[in-house]
Amino acid sequence: MNVANVLEQVLGGDLPIAIHAYDGSRAGPADATTTVVVRSPDAIRRMVTAPGELGLARAYVAGDLELDGDIFELLGLQRQFQRLRVGPRQIAELVKLAGGPRQLRPPPPPPEEVRLRGRRHSQRRDAAAISHHYDVPTRFFELVLGPSMTYSCAVFASESTSLEDAQAAKLELVCQKLAL
């Protein structure tokens, strides 16, 4: 069995997205606007050894899993994914695709994932967590927060709203609520 077939069995055959895998296999509609690309066996290892959101997130951050298309289309499938029941047969197939039981060690977390040490919520550990989160190049925050550099939940009126306009809309909303 190939990667795309096993993932299609696990996820259900009526997906509106396509799956392309490192072994050349494909599943899903040929005209899909969104494609999940499984780039390596490490993606399978990550998903099997850390099932759920953690394994998927690690595979994505590490570059083992890629998304081509609309992330919102993929996120729209969240309810369908929550109802998944992976049976013993699918687990056995996924283990095979990951290289067999002997190869089924979790790959190391991506370097971007913080590994905190020490007593939880100690001053030292919390300082390390804050540093990991905020001590990144300003260019990153410009991309994520827009020119205003406002750390907020931007308000997008439509899909075509720019980040800058969404940030301004959030500030306007706050001002209105404060009756300024």
What does this structure look like?
By secondary structure, the chain is α+β, with helices and mostly antiparallel strands. It is built from nine helices and four strands, in the order H-E-E-E-H-H-E-H-H-H-H-H-H. Helix 1 (3-11) runs antiparallel to helix 6, helix 2 packs antiparallel against helix 3 (53-62) and helix 2 (41-49) crosses helix 6 (88-97). The mean pLDDT is 87.
H/E element sequence: HEEEHHEHHHHHH
Number of helices: 9
Task: Please state the structural category.
Answer: alpha+beta
Shape: globular
Give the total of beta strands.
4
Q: What's the gyration radius in Å?
A: 20 Å
Determine the N-to-C terminus distance: 63 Å
Mean pLDDT score, rounded? Answer: 87
Strand percentage? 5-15%
Order the strands across the largest sheet as they lie in space.
2-1-3-4
Helix content: 40-55%
Low-confidence stretches: none
Outline the biggest β-sheet. 4 strands, mixed
SSE order and pairing:
Blueprint lengths: L2 H9 L6 E4 L4 E2 L7 E4 L2 H9 L3 H10 L2 E4 L2 H5 L2 H5 L5 H10 L25 H12 L3 H8 L17 H15 L3
Parallel strand pairs: 1-3
Antiparallel strand pairs: 1-2, 3-4
Features:
globular, 180 residues, four-stranded mixed β-sheet, alpha+beta, 9 helices, 46% helix
Give a nutshell description of this structure:
This protein is of the alpha+beta class and 180 residues long. Helices cover 46% and strands 8% of the residues.
